[in-house]
Amino acid sequence: MAKTVAQSYDKTILFIKISSAVCGANVLNPAYRMNILTWIVIVCINLYYVFTGYTLYVNIYVEKDWPNVLQVLCYLGSAVQGYCKLLNAIHNKESLRFLDQELREIYLEYDQKHADYRYCLKTTIDRANKFIKFMIIFQILISGSLIGVAPFYRLVFNQRIFVMQFLLPGVDPSTEYGYFVMNCMHCICIIFGSFGNFAADLFFFVVVSHVPMFKDILTCKFHDLNDLLEEEVADNENNNNNNRIKDVREDFRSLLIDIFKWHQRYLRFIAIVKENYFWVLLVEMGTVALSLASTLFCLILGTWPGGQSYLAYCFIMLYIYCGLGTVVEVTNDGFIDSCYTEIIWYKLPVSQRKMLRMMLMMAQNTDGLTIGSVIPLSMNTGLQLTKTIYTMTMMLINFLE
Question: Where do transmembrane segments lie in this chain (predicted)?
């Protein structure tokens, strides 16, 4: 039996639930409670903070190695991101379940309509699944390259370098045993940290990738409305019976009201996404900027052989988030364009033109995703942030010189 788009969506959400459950944060499950896995993850992140603090103390007060301090701070940003996403998911679990249920209801409702609606749904879920596959491959490649640099340098150059830079109290990194133990611990942190951030990002990516679907379905509704308008005009010209004209007008009025309700549904959806991911976006952008500046500085000084992979990871994550913000901006503009170009508005009765104008005014004032309610999350912001990071790095280099 052919699989419906609603079943495809359920399969995608099931994958997200399994990934989140491994991290102890399957908040999409209505029966979710903080469990032993949740506390293990929280304890491990806090231990990483302790080890990082100890390493900073050694580098600043004992060895006075300032370039190494920045290298330690590079990975700290990813840990802060993961912790913030975990706490945010637990705190806002009801809202995240609402977003999931809202999307599922849309799939179930519009999967029963004509082919244009089903095409919109299929395009959306295929886009979300392709993005998830890309993220899986991306995380595997980055994690593998971060871990592989240590054995590569040991085998090729006979040089001992560490995967990460935090120290373990009581373990001497200058000994062969200490080198092995610390790198094993670093590899474990890379694997679990990478998977944790991947699992935390999945639902946000899937939710935002569904934002264009609202505009696509609105376009389908406008086309259906145009068909009814043309039918009404044709009936009037052919002097068809009054009952038929009355039925067409009733269908037309019902569909127009449904369009207004759909736009209100979209506004509510975007408002919930913005509210629940406010801190995630703020922390993500702030820590990515810190990690990028620190990593770029270390690479320029030549103190971190494996920094290229982490720099690539930070840049790609920066522009993925900024790209998703741009998706919301483009969708908001698409609602405005649809009100002008996808509906035969000049054939509407005067009273209904006024309602459409009100919807257009609301569409023109719809805000996109922001960083701290101050800076819009967009590709332009990502470009400006990249320029700022480069400037900060040059200032750090001049300071050390």
Answer: 12-29, 36-57, 131-157, 177-208, 277-304, 310-328
Structure tokens at 113: 């309509």
Beta bridge partners of 370: 376
- What DSSP element (H or E) covers 38? helix 36-57
* Alpha carbons 151 and 162: distance in angstroms, whole number: 9
DSSP, collapsed to helix, strand or coil, labels residue 376 as: strand
Question: For residue 147, which of 107, 184, 117, 100 has the smallest C-alpha distance?
Answer: 184
Q: Cα dist. 293→12, 165, 247, 328, 389 in Å?
A: 35, 17, 65, 27, 5
Residue 170: half-sphere exposure toward Cβ, Cα within 13 Å: 0
Nearest CA to 20 out of 43, 37, 39, 45 is that of 37
Report the C-alpha gap between 375 and 388 in whole angstroms.
14
At 143, list the tokens. 């994690």
Q: DSSP letter string over 295-356?
A: HHHHHHHT--TTHHHHHHHHHHHHHHHHHHHHHHHHHHHHHHHHHHHSS-GGGS-HHHHHHH
The structure's pTM equals 0.91
CA–CA distance, 221 with 117 (Å, rounded to integer): 9
| CA separation for the pair 5, 388 (Å, rounded) | 43
Tokens read off for 78: 């990813």
Q: How does pLDDT run across 51-72, given as a tens digit for each residue?
A: 999 999 988 888 877 777 888 8
Distances (CA, A) of 272 to 99, 266, 335, 338, 393: 8, 10, 18, 23, 36
In whole angstroms, give the CA distance from residue 262 to residue 215. Answer: 10
Q: Is 134 helix (H, G, I), strand (E, B) or coil?
A: helix
SS3 190: helix
Q: What are the tens digits of pLDDT across the range 8-28?
A: 999 999 999 999 999 999 999
**Alpha-carbon torsion angle 237, 238, 239, 242, nearest 10:** -100
Question: Mean pLDDT score of the chain, rounded to an integer?
Answer: 87
Task: Tell me the two tokens of residue 400.
Answer: 């050390």
Q: Helices (H) and strands (E) in the chain — how many of each?
A: 12, 2
Q: Which of 26, 166, 161, 156 is nearest to 97 (CA)?
A: 26
